[in-house]
Fold:
Amino acid sequence: MKILHLSDIHLGSSFNHGKISSETGLNTRFHDFVNNLSICMDRALEESVDLVLFGGDAFPDSTPVPYLQSAFASQFRRLGEAGIPTILLVGNHDQHSQDNQRVGNASLSIYHSLGVPNITVGEKLETHVIDTKSGAIQIITLPWLTRSIFLTKEETNGLSMEKINQLLIQKVEVALEGEIRALDSSMPTILLAHLMAERAQIGAERYLAVGKGFQIPLSMLIRPEFDFVALGHVHRHQNLNLRNNPPVVYPGSIERVDFSEEKEEKGYVLIDIDDQKTVNWQFCGLPARPFCTIEVDVSDSKDPLEAILGAIASNPIEDAVVRLIYKVRSEQLETIKNKVIAEALASAHTHTIRTHLVSMESRRRLPELGVGKNLDPYSALSTYLDNREDIQDIADDMLLAAESLLAEIV
Structure:
């Protein structure tokens, strides 16, 4: 049985890192996300997979504009037309912020309401038996959970946040155990969950949602009854159980959201389960838009502009989302030509430039002038001037003036 697992599409994100396409009039980052989603669908069709699992967070929020909904639906419709069953799990970004404990109150709920063929929406903790061309499989769906789903105000009144989280985990564990005990051991089983697991390494999602939920102990996920644990929410691909008994896998997001994901590879996961329920899986990379950060300190440079241009030239900026951050002293600003810098960044997809002014106080101190050094005033000035390349043309005059002043004092 072949299964494709993807998650965290976030269609409509990262528009501030794109530009308007002259061909479509839409943001180029929209096309980046749709392109990678299309590649996932292409692979599912090419491999003739038995099932597709989506781990949640279809859009940046629960009220996507119509063209985003249409693009998402168009891609997943391809699976339905090919007879490939799909489970769409509700993530935290798919839920409406108000009254989110009610089933049917998520952006993906429309697929359930319309009865779209071959699509199952995971809106609550429950077990779904999915018939595929290679046999039946059990999928336990565990959507993003909030305290209001399991706990009443009376239960949490007067409790600390830590105690509330402990109580919530206990209730989730009991509910999950009920699903596990009802499983048919003759069929393979996958837990499909949108959650923050212990020891998961996080990226952009720390700014998007982490902190609003709670961490699930790995002991709840590493169960012999599960053949595979397919997770969503964390944007960095990782397997939290290297023993693979079972694999506990975040496929990660399909496209970079911001610079916190600059060095992360993006992709999806292919899973193969044989008749003995032996599981093999692999991560498949996607051509995500490259992000490139260029940081350069030119505060001690004789030619700050040339140093900045050199830093740009030494980085792979073509078709990348680039941010240039340079440190400079205020007196050097007039030597910086923004037009020249923009021309050097022309091959980037988009770019931003940030200038950090370095004050004299924040510049590095000279060890020769540190505490415990007994230099006379003239030697101290000479040492200082030796380390100021930007004023070497007046250094001799300054030393002569200092020598004259010291002579008067003596």
User: Anything to note?
Assistant: The two ends are 94 Å apart (CA to CA).
